[in-house]
Amino acid sequence: MADPIRKPQQGKRSWARRCAAQALYEWQITGQEPSRIAAQFLADEDLRKADPDYFWELIQQIPARAAEIDAALDPFLDRPLAQVDPVERAILRIGGYELMQHPNLAYRIVLNEAVELAKVFGAEQGHRYVNGVLDKLARAVRSAEFAAPS
Questions:
Q1: For domain 8-143, which architecture applies?
Q2: Chain segment 113-123, per-residue pLDDT in tens
Q3: Residues 6 or more apart from 8 whose CB is under 8 A from it?
Q4: Cα atoms in the 13 Å half-sphere on the side-chain side of 63
Q5: How far apart are CA 9 and CA 6, in angstroms?
Q6: Domain residue ranges of the chain, discontinuous segments joined by +
Q7: pTM of the model
Q8: Which of 23, 54, 17, 22 lies closest to 38 in space, CA to CA?
Q9: Residue 80 CB: number of other CB atoms within 10 A?
């Protein structure tokens, strides 16, 4: 039986990722300050469904650590990150950040959340690309998790 206390938080985190993907897309396209974009989202009713602290963390930390995240993703890309669709790029950055900065989140959760975002916002087969890249990154940065018995 699922833990009823954890389930709502997971839903709120999923919604935070969804809003963060949209905000990061906007940041990539416009170059606006992440805090200004976040303020717009915080005023939006959709964010009420989300964990606002997690949204804020993602929208602040991913741009601040973009070079580090991008460098970690780079070996697993088939083209320069700048040529990756901006929607998938935002989702890859969220997944990369979570894999690197949130070891408490199982890599399978990170991958599943990223794939679901790519299915909603990305190109027709974008979810496959996102899954492939993040799976390779997970194997590199979470090798102990892969070595552990299931």
A1: Orthogonal Bundle (1.10)
A2: 999 999 999 98
A3: none
A4: 23
A5: 5
A6: 8-143
A7: 0.89
A8: 23
A9: 9
